[in-house]
């Protein structure tokens, strides 16, 4: 019988992480500095820096795992957390959708077709759950999860993300280090861990880059600073994009 780390063991290793690991912020800023100096189109610079910063976040997660001597028990095809509400800025949504537009034709078409069917199926329920006030309603996450609405980018036949490499920070930084059954048996498991604090380094570097472009008077498809401070549920951003593409 396979044994898993206990919550107590995970807690102790997390304490070790806090005492012995320091995030190297320079890693994030070096990414945008490098792309800022490239002789290429601004839109390409934005997309490249966005995607590389996401990779840096994932790399940071791996280094923290190594420091703690733990590995996530999350498995391919496990998608319980893909029913959680994801809230991102308009700037992140634009970067995600622009990246999808740059996917190979067949993959992009598969996503746009999937989204059309998704919003036809879940449209009414989404109106209800995405009207939940995520700033004022302390129980909004549980209410959203209980609606059983999957992420718009989840292929529910394979339980795989259709845009995995550009998935947002909340998806990227949520992990389970103990028995994976807890995710199946609990709506909001207390045993899982979120490293969403990495958003600060990621967004800090990305914001600095876009601010630099703004001062250069060319931010491509980003309306800065408005897009930075406009937040909404991911399904709402993707619905607007999907409808725009179908016109």
UniProtKB/TrEMBL annotation:
InterPro entries: Puta_zinc/iron-chelating_dom
UniProt name for this protein: Zinc-or iron-chelating domain-containing protein
